[in-house]
Give the backbone structure.
Amino acid sequence: MPELHHTIVAPVVTEKSSAAYGARKEYAFRVHPDATKPQIRAAIESLFKVSVTAVRTMVVRAKRRTYGRYVGRRPSWKKAIVTLKEGDTIAVFEG
């Protein structure tokens, strides 16, 4: 399993994830495909100094992509939706 700073790959900042942050204080992250929920919780708590109350994970399926006459596919990836304790925030999603 990767180290803590390799577990969290990148934040997912989209319209849908921004709406989830605004309504329910849920943060979305792209994570390592082999990461488990306890490992994701530990990585978020140590990297951002916050308290995690819930972690939900899902695998985003690969998509077929057409480039003119060439057909390829985007890879599948794992997404984690993290809920924090009341009052905690992550600065990446602010502003």
